[in-house]
């Protein structure tokens, strides 16, 4: 397999674009080559198989959607209360909107995992790892609530992100006075995260 890391990353990003646009059935090496603007046959030199490409898309898209370290450090300088959780959820939603393609690719990976047991195993481990990391982060940061709080936030925010990125009309006006998505983020956090005294 070819070893140019910049070219590999560009091909994986092209794969994310193809997956989000055309779905898993449209994800071919030829389509990736076209999206990346490289000669036909390039992707087959970088990935052992389509499953290898899908696994690398999974890893890459999670990196693309991760919080910016400087922005996260700035947020974590705030008091560890419900308003900080709200700010973190706003940041999560902003990242989803900025990289809509990345999130749509994740949804396509989920659908493909329902059809392919080998992908289901690796993708389940990947997503479960993200959820467990979120729980650990919440605990270590001393944020209000517990693992149940994080699990419910995860489920609610995932639902909000999916609706907002795919069928935004479903949510407009569903809760009077709550803008989409910002106001709904506020409502989710207020409903899920306990209010505690501010802590430094």
Secondary-structure map:
Elements: H1 5-22, H2 29-36, H3 42-46, H4 50-65, H5 69-75, H6 82-98, H7 100-115, H8 117-141, H9 147-166, H10 182-192
How does this structure look, described?
Helix content is 72%, strand content 0%. The N and C termini lie far apart (51 Å). The model has no long low-confidence stretch (mean pLDDT 95). The protein contains ten helices and no strands. It is an all-alpha fold and 200 residues long.
Summarize the entry for a quick read.
72% of the residues lie in helices and 0% in strands.
Q: Which structural category do the helix and sheet elements fall into?
A: mainly alpha
Sequence of secondary-structure elements: HHHHHHHHHH
In total, the number of strands is: 0
Main beta sheet:
none
- The shape, in one word, is elongated
| Rg over CA atoms | 19 Å
- Report how far apart the termini are: 51 Å
- Low-pLDDT runs of 5+ residues are none
Mean pLDDT figure: 95
Number of helices: 10
- Fraction of residues in H or I helices: over 70%
Measured by DSSP, the beta-strand proportion falls in under 5%
Organism: Streptomyces flavalbus
Protein name: TetR/AcrR family transcriptional regulator
DNA-binding region: 28-47
Pfam family, one: TetR_C_31
């Amino acid at each position: 397999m070819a070893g140019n890391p910049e070219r590999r990353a560009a091909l994986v990003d092209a794969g994310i674009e193809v997956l989000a646009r055309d779905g898993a059935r449209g994800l071919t090496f030829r389509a990736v080559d076209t999206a990346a603007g490289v000669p036909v046959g390039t992707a087959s030199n970088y990935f052992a198989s389509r499953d290898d490409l899908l696994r690398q898309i999974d890893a890459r898209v999670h990196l693309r959607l991760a919080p910016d370290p400087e922005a996260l450090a700035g947020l974590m300088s705030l008091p560890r209360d419900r308003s900080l959780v709200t700010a973190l959820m706003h940041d999560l939603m902003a990242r989803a909107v900025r990289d809509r393609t990345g999130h749509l690719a994740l949804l396509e990976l989920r659908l493909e995992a329902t059809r392919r047991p080998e992908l289901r195993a690796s993708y389940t481990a990947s997503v479960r790892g993200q959820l467990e990391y979120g729980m650990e982060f919440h605990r270590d940061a001393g944020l209000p609530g517990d693992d149940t709080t994080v699990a419910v936030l995860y489920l609610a925010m995932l639902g909000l992100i999916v609706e907002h990125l795919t069928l935004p009309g479903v949510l407009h006006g569903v809760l009077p006075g709550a803008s989409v998505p910002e106001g709904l983020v506020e409502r989710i956090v207020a409903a899920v995260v306990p209010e505690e005294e501010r802590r430094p």
